[in-house]
Structures are given as C-alpha cells and as structure tokens.
C-alpha cells in the first residue's frame, strides 16, 4: 500500500488502473480477496461504481460552487435594493405596526428618554474615568508644555588628572622620636 495522501483524484486514478489491470491479467476465473471470493467482472463492477461515485461527487461539487457564485452575484445586486425598499417602507408607513407586519417588518424602536439622575451618574463616571486615565482633550493637551523651571544643574568640573611620582608613591617613614630610637638599637 502506498503511503501517499489519498485524495479523490488519486483514488480515481488507482481505481481506473486496478480496473485495467484486472481486465488485462485476470479476465476469467475467481479471485479471493480479503477472504471473500470474487470473479473479475464483479471486482471491475465494484471499482467502476466507486469511480462513477467519485465523478458524480466532483460534478455535484462543481454545481455547488457554481450555485454559490450565482448566489453571491445575486445578493450583490438585490440586497442593496432590498435594504432601500425596507427603509422606504418604514419611513413611508411610519410606526403603524399592522401595515409593517404585512411586509414582515417591525417599527423602529423609540429610544427611552434618559432620566436626569442617569445623566448625572454617567457624567460623574466619565469624569472619574478621565481623571483615572489622565485623559485630556486637544485643548488641554496644548496647554501642557515641557518647560522645566527651578532646576539647578551643577556642573561637575574635574581638574587635570593627577600623576604621582614614584617617590611619592613609596610609604613615608615616620619621624616620631620613639620610632627613630627603636631602629638604632
């Protein structure tokens, strides 16, 4: 058995080759396949049945793709007109549910008026959110500048590098009277 990927096209090729090979090499007699005895004509008929089914599925898929393409084209033409007609009906018939129901439409919902308390709460929430996120409008951003005041910068001035002489690098001897006496003895 091949380890190749089995697609409809490869299966169709395999079926046609098996049919041709069976007719060429085993035109008569019986064949035992998978523990079942077949005559070659029955095997060929089974293989051709599978091949016909594959071909029919390819044709059905092609028809399906054509139908989808036709559907997309039709929708592109009709849906804008449909939407415009619905808008026309709703605007011309107004909010008469019985007339709109005849067309399968419902009247547009009227927004409920917002109470003063809800408006106050919403404004407070917006203000708190803007404060928490440091959100500013365009004019507020223009007022913010990057000028720095009251900052004193102290320059660090380094003198010339100091070089020590070898004599200065040696440890100095102490001149205390007690140290000098200890060396003499």
Features:
185 residues, mainly alpha, 2 strands
Question: What do you see in this structure?
Answer:
It contains seven helices and two strands. The longest helix is centred in the middle third of the chain and has 54 residues, at 40-93. With 185 residues, it is mainly alpha-helical. Helix 1 (8-25) runs antiparallel to helix 2 (40-93). The N and C termini lie far apart (110 Å). The mean pLDDT is 83. It has a two-stranded antiparallel ribbon. Strand 1 (31-33) and strand 2 (36-38) form a beta hairpin. It has helices spanning 8-25, 40-93, 97-102, 116-133, 138-143, 166-169, 177-184, and strands at 31-33, 36-38. Helix content is 62%, strand content 3%. It has a domain at 8-102.
SSE string: HEEHHHHHH
Instruction: Indicate the overall shape.
Output: flat
Q: Please give the radius of gyration in angstroms.
A: 48 Å
Number of helical segments with 4 or more residues = 7
- Uncertain residue ranges: none
Largest sheet: 2 strands, antiparallel
Mean pLDDT: 83
Oligomer class: single chain
How far the N terminus sits from the C terminus, by CA atoms, comes to: 110 Å
Kindly name the structural category. mainly alpha
Question: Strand order across the biggest sheet?
Answer: 1-2
Helix content: 55-70%
- Count the beta strands: 2
Strand percentage lies at under 5%
């Amino acid at each position: 058995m091949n380890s190749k990927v089995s697609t409809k096209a490869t299966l169709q090729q395999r079926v046609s080759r098996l049919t041709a090979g069976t007719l060429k090499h085993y035109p008569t007699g019986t064949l035992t396949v998978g523990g079942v005895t077949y005559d070659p004509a029955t095997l060929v008929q089974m293989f051709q049945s599978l091949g016909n089914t594959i071909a029919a599925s390819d044709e059905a898929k092609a028809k399906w793709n054509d139908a989808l393409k036709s559907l997309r084209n039709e929708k592109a033409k009709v849906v804008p007109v449909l939407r415009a007609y619905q808008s026309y009906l709703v605007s011309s018939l107004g909010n008469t549910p019985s007339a709109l129901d005849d067309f399968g439409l419902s009247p547009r919902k009227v927004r409920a008026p917002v109470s003063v308390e809800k408006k106050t709460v919403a404004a407070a929430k917006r203000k708190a959110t803007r404060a928490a996120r440091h959100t500013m409008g365009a004019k507020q951003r223009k007022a913010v500048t990057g000028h720095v005041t009251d900052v004193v910068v102290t320059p660090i001035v380094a003198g010339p590098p100091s070089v020590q002489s070898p004599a200065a690098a040696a440890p100095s001897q102490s001149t205390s009277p007690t140290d000098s006496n200890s060396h003499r003895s």
